[in-house]
Amino acid sequence: MVSSVLEDKQHAPAARPKVGFVSLGCPKNLVDSEVMMGLLHHNGAELTQKAEDAEIIVINTCSFIDSAKQESVNTILEMVQHKREHGGKATRIVVAGCLVERYRDEIRKNIPEVDAVVGTGELEAILSAAGLTPSGFSKSDSPFQILPQDFAQPSIEAHTQHDLELLPNALVNETTVAADSHQNIPQQQLVHRAPSAVNQHSRPQSEDEQIAPQLSIAQSLAETGTTTSRPEGDAREQSGRFSRESWDGATAALPSYLYSDETPRILSTPRASAYVKIAEGCDHPCSFCIIPQLRGKFRSRRMGSIIAETQNLIAQGVREITLIGQDTTCYGEDLGLKEGLAQLLDALAVLPGLKWLRFLYTYPNKVTTRLLETMAKHDTIAKYLDVPLQHASASVLKTMKRGGNGQIFLDLITKARTIVPNIVIRTSFIVGFPGETEADFAELCTFVQAAKIDWLGVFTYSDEEGAKAYELDASTKIPARTIQARRRKLMRLQQKISMKSKSAWIGREVDVLVEGPSEETDLLWQGRTMLHAPEIDGHVLINDFGPHEELVPGTFYRAEITESHDYDVVARILE
Q1: What pLDDT digit, counting tens, does each position of 373-390 carry?
Q2: Is the backbone of residue 386 left (phi > 0), alpha (psi -120 to 50) or beta?
Q3: CA distance 551 to 570
Q4: Is residue 289 a contact partner of residue 304, using CB atoms and an 8 Å limit?
Q5: Helix (H) or strand (E) holding 475
Q6: Which residues of the chain have pLDDT under 50?
Q7: Half-sphere exposure in the Cβ direction for 465 (13 Å, CA)
């Protein structure tokens, strides 16, 4: 595998090379970056926050839609220019991620300054790409290497037009605190920008006591099935769903990699929060999407590994866990588990020290009664359902190969709101899909008005070569101007709905996780409630610190909502 990802054109870097990272795209991509950083650090590399100090620069790319591909290419070219113009300090550029799966040979051919490429299923090959020899690691040496607690955690910053620092929107030299204390703990962190109270009532438990019940559950569950993939995935593979024959340079084998709790990983989010990837790949047939070709067939991590990773994160000071995967509701099906996500949530929600637990990216027809009841019964689970619906017109959904219709989705939302009181719904739609008529779009607008979605994102259709929708007749394709107009109309409609919804928040007392100064003005600070997912939803803007002279990022405070705006609310700290 090493020879397939590494083309060595430069002399070998120093014995302990300095490596800088740029991570683009979604949180799932960010976790891949964290794993690669952990592997590099564990095997002798030194991570640096300054591009001018980096001997090796790694760009982890996104290739989901045209705008993401363009951002990835622009970033690669920016780092190439930096390599040329800054005294030759950077001797190696490595491109990783989804763009590599799609354009492996073209990257090498058209950007000869790129020294190595690493696909989504080849994360461990980052060592060879960086010129390092694997030293190996074992659980006895480091059960889970966020970093060993006697090390300061490295920070990696953003690159801008004026200052080529690495990793978007970084918070550096940030002081964070454990959720159950206001004692300062210096901790350097980094933050990735996507294209978006501890339980102290139980007696202290030893590590073995904490993990034993959950692990025994997980082990018994894992042994209930011997399948290695979902039947749907096997059937769709036979029908050509994962074919990459037309992709010049794509490897024949689909990505199959999964990290585990024993894999070194460097946490790159603010200390109180972390993502945990519970599965990889996707088997769904959506005609607008090439993720299955980029990421491979759906595959779940073992439950015991996820629990162990979560416990180790909690031990490092993490209090908010967000579970991610291309489709979290399929979790465990390939392991023979029934209602696997609900069972996983049951196991994680009771872990001592965990304050907030949420999961993202659910599939509509897999949001079951059991899953909703599990959300309702645990205070630690966010009453937050992220369910991308994509459209409400049955004819558009059929062409998308999604299925369903507006009424089925309204029934699902009603069911969720009945079983989980005060639940917040997030969804996303695609406008301008081939064949979408004015009547289809009007049906979508009517649905949005009826559903009163709390958080809504709107994507404009992107024609992606390799997706089935790309092959649809040209006469069905919608003009770009029309697509943009539909997006603006839908967002104006949602703005009114959100404004009314947020006004109902005034007077509520909520727990707020403070993130730091506002992105909009230094006069305000910002944070999130349990009903805000990291990076993609609105903010809680804080204009009154209450009894505190200053606030500490990464700390939970009790607050009262005093004002509301279109998507954000304003709060004052109570305690």
Answers
A1: 999 999 999 999 999 999
A2: beta
A3: 16
A4: no
A5: none
A6: 1-11, 137-227
A7: 8
